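Run log // design_07
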């Protein structure tokens, strides 16, 4: 029974077709519990994305990973890398991560500056670490509120991160246990990420 439960999330994900677009909700973003007594030093280093909600900014690409580096001045540098189809060329974008003032918890704001014409745009986005053990897995959530035709809606993002490029079944089980604690998080839109031959791309 235990082995069946471990394999179930993988089989479940692979049996459903890919969902295009992004995950939307009505009204304000839900207030979801995050990791308490957050240890920034232990969170630093490299993480691999193994599953996520569908996102327009990730299409069509693979081999997603992120590197976090804490500088002496307290600024956290972020390097997000991905490999694009069909060229299989790797691209890295640079940004910063800062903890939300107040309680020492896993709420951050992430910023990837970009240019629009001659203007440099800084747009901070919530980056909430819902749960992590620092050495094997992390669940990250983000939500952005929008006004569409006078109606308040929200766009939701979810990432399963691991320290290993190979997805271990016990790690996947821990990730699903983590999101199962928040009924506001739907599991049906989660898609597995592809890391096949990622170490051979350039």
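design_07 sequence
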């Amino acid at each position: 029974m235990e082995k069946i439960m471990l394999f179930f999330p993988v089989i479940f994900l692979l049996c459903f077709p890919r969902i295009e677009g992004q995950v939307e909700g009505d009204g304000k973003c839900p207030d979801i519990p995050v990791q308490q007594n957050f240890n920034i030093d232990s969170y630093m280093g490299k993480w691999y994305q193994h599953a996520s909600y569908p996102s327009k900014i990730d299409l069509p690409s693979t081999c997603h990973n992120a590197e976090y580096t804490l500088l002496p001045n307290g600024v956290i540098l972020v390097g997000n890398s991905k490999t694009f189809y069909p060229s299989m060329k790797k691209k890295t974008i640079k940004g910063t991560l800062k903890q939300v003032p107040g309680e020492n918890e896993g709420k951050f704001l992430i910023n990837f500056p970009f240019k629009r014409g001659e203007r440099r745009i800084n747009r901070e986005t919530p980056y909430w670490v819902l749960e992590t053990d620092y050495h094997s897995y992390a669940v990250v959530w983000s939500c952005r509120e929008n006004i569409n035709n006078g109606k308040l809606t929200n766009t939701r993002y979810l990432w399963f991160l691991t320290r290993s490029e190979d997805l271990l079944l016990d790690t996947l089980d821990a990730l699903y246990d983590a999101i199962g604690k928040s009924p506001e998080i739907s599991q049906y839109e989660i898609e597995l990420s592809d890391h096949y031959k990622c170490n051979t791309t350039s």
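The CA atoms of residues 70 and 199 lie 25 Å apart.
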